[in-house]
From TrEMBL:
InterPro entries: Ig-like_dom (IPR007110), Ig-like_dom_sf (IPR036179), Ig-like_fold (IPR013783), Ig_I-set (IPR013098), Obscurin/Obscurin-like_Reg (IPR052385). It is found in: Cytoplasm. One of its GO terms (cellular component) is cytoplasm. Keywords: Cytoplasm, Disulfide bond, Phosphoprotein. It comes from Pitta sordida. PROSITE patterns: IG_LIKE. PANTHER family: OBSCURIN, SI:DKEY-31G6.6. Pfam families: I-set. Residues 2-86 form the Ig-like domain. This is OBSCN protein. It comes from the Eukaryota. Its main location: cytoplasm.
Length: 86
């Protein structure tokens, strides 16, 4: 299995309370396994508040819906041993 690396990392975002925010991270290979999104070291799941998807096979996206003050913090994307934060 190829060693997947991060090609384009996360970017810091500033949003207003109640807005949606989307983070994107591009990886080197399609169908990457062992991928994880975290907010403040808490693993995020795909649900009505967090939309986790993959665009064009290599761009992993996380959309946080209707953010609140409790969503302030560090977002981490991890694939294998590689991480990117914003």
């Amino acid at each position: 299995e190829p060693n997947v690396t991060i090609v384009s990392g996360l970017k810091d975002m500033v949003v207003f309370e109640g807005d949606d925010v989307t983070f994107r991270c591009q990886v080197s290979h399609e169908n990457a396994r062992d991928v994880e999104w975290k907010l403040q070291d808490v693993a995020l799941q795909n649900n009505e508040m967090n939309e986790i998807s993959v665009e064009k096979g290599k761009t992993h996206t996380l959309t946080l819906r209707k953010v609140t003050e409790q969503d302030i913090g560090t977002i981490t994307f991890r694939v294998g041993p590689h991480t990117s934060t914003a």
